[in-house]
Design goal:
Keywords: Disulfide bond, Endoplasmic reticulum, Membrane, Signal-anchor, Transmembrane, Transmembrane helix. This protein has 461 residues and is an alpha+beta fold. The chain has helices at 11-22, 32-43, 48-51, 54-86, 89-101, 110-114, 159-167, 179-194, 200-211, 221-231, 234-241, 284-294, 298-314, 352-359, 395-408, 413-427, 433-436, 438-455, and strands at residues 119-124, 131-138, 141-148, 251-255, 258-262, 323-325, 333-335, 341-343, 349-351, 371-372, 376-381, 386-391.
Length: 461
């Protein structure tokens, strides 16, 4: 009846649809012109030439649709699986608040987290199941909340099992420990971690002040247990040691071994992060091009770079010794809304003293056996089959490798050649003690000066 010159195949489906179009429900009457348009779209979408190939086209389209459904289902499954494995903030909240209510731990954030509920966990940002990271709000202020779970699901996974395993974190100091003994504990621990430094006594005093939550001039057993557990976390120790530094996120509070920091507006140098399960499917060239397209304007990237170079200066021969970047990844370097560099993740930063202790006397066959973290690598003395204690690549060289892609893209033409030359010199820096002092500082200052001269007296300075 409404063929309009179309092929008559599929008559049963058409008859049913025509019945709907010609005899609509009482509540809706479709105009004749609209019925004709719908009929043409549904039944005559292809030209006569294409209609002769319709069966083959149907198969191709069907395969493409099913392939799309399979890929989308796989992505959704992987997203759910990774979320359920990595995001266990509810476990952190349960364990911490249980310990707080039992008087085992204390902290400046405990009341807000467990009683007032003014400190809330929101979006999961974890990349490891043993280190929970969440964005959150504390009295309407954006914050980042971090909490450790020491392989707690390797047991039976029951709540009481989680509590038992977390209890071992808070076993020191023991009841009866005097204040002088606690100070000595702190001093010995900091000396073994940071090395013999003249300012360790000042750092001990800073830790004691931080532990005294109620500001009564005393440190309770719960306060001491909490701050001792936190000092075992490398990032927390660095935040305390570098708290006055501009490019370190501010520590806002803690409860047991959970701690709260200021939120960095952008937690990575690049805005597009490809999930690990999709990296094999997305070409590296494509993700790199997209990140370059999404990156801030070059003068803003130069400002972020200057801040990153200043951080390298801050951790090189600071008041509490030298610190090395053992995973110079773009995911660990962030920046705020003013494009000031902020280190979003300090877990991969380690003291030179701790790395030397790790390497000293370590047996090896190749240089790869002498690696602390991801890329703090020393050489292997193959005659005695032991690691040397000097890391080969210094912080500045690692940062310059990172900056080659980040900074050269979109650089002003009159600056590019000089910038490329300085970055090339920087990348080849050695970590040997004979080169570290003068050469390291000279290269760093030259690079900072070049960038600063370019953006000074502009809106980006």
């Amino acid at each position: 009846m409404l063929s309009h010159g179309c092929d008559s195949t599929g008559i049963r489906f058409r008859d049913l649809l025509q019945a709907v179009l010609v005899f609509p429900t009482e509540s809706f009457v479709m105009p004749r012109g609209l019925r004709r348009l719908v009929h043409l779209v549904l039944f005559c979408p292809l030209s006569k030439g294409l209609q002769s190939r319709l069966p083959a086209l149907k198969v191709k389209y069907l395969l493409l649709v099913w392939l799309g459904i399979l890929v989308a289902s796989w992505v959704l499954y992987m997203q759910y699986a990774s979320y359920s494995e990595l995001c266990r903030g509810h476990v952190c909240h349960m364990v911490i608040c249980d310990h707080y209510r039992r008087g085992i731990i204390s902290g400046s954030s405990c009341k807000a987290l467990c009683e007032e509920r003014s400190l809330t966990l929101q979006r999961c940002m974890s990349t490891s199941s043993t280190h929970q990271v969440y964005s959150g709000l504390w009295k309407e202020r954006p914050v980042v909340i971090k909490c450790g779970l020491e392989e707690s699901l390797k047991g039976d996974g029951a709540p009481d099992s989680l509590l038992r395993q977390e209890m071992t974190l808070f076993d020191k100091p023991t009841r009866g420990t005097s204040m002088d003994e606690f100070r000595e504990m702190l001093h010995s621990f900091l000396k073994s971690t940071l090395g013999e430094q003249p300012s360790l006594t000042t750092l001990v005093g800073r830790v004691i002040t931080l532990a005294d939550v109620n500001k009564d001039g005393k440190v309770s057993l719960a306060e001491a247990k909490s701050v001792w557990a936190l000092l075992q976390i490398n990032e927390f120790l660095l935040m305390v040691a570098l708290q006055e530094k501009e490019h370190t996120p501010k520590l806002l509070g803690f409860c047991g071994d959970l701690y709260v920091t200021e939120r960095v507006g952008h937690s990575s140098l690049y805005r597009l992060e490809i999930p690990s399960y999709l990296q094999a499917l997305v070409p590296e060239a494509l993700s790199s091009s997209l990140n370059q397209w999404l990156a801030p304007a070059w003068p803003r990237r130069a400002r972020i770079t200057i801040g990153l170079l200043e951080f390298v200066e801050e951790v090189f021969h600071g008041a509490y010794g030298s610190f090395l970047l053992c995973d110079a990844s773009s995911r660990h370097v962030g920046y705020n809304v003013k494009y000031d560099c902020k280190m979003a993740d300090l877990r991969s930063v380690a003291s030179e003293a701790a790395i030397r202790t790790f390497l000293r006397g370590r047996r090896c066959e190749t240089n790869a056996d002498c690696t602390f973290g991801r890329d703090c690598t020393a050489t292997c003395d193959r005659l005695v089959k032991q690691c040397n204690t000097e890391v080969v690549q210094p912080n500045l060289a690692k940062v310059c490798v990172l900056l080659q892609d980040y900074l050269l893209f979109g650089a002003p033409p009159d600056l590019r050649a000089d910038l490329e030359k300085q970055l090339r010199t920087c990348v080849t820096l050695s970590g040997l003690a004979s080169q570290m002092e003068v050469h390291h500082s000279l290269v760093l200052n030259n690079l900072k000066t070049l960038l600063w001269k370019t953006i000074s007296n502009t809106q980006y300075s």
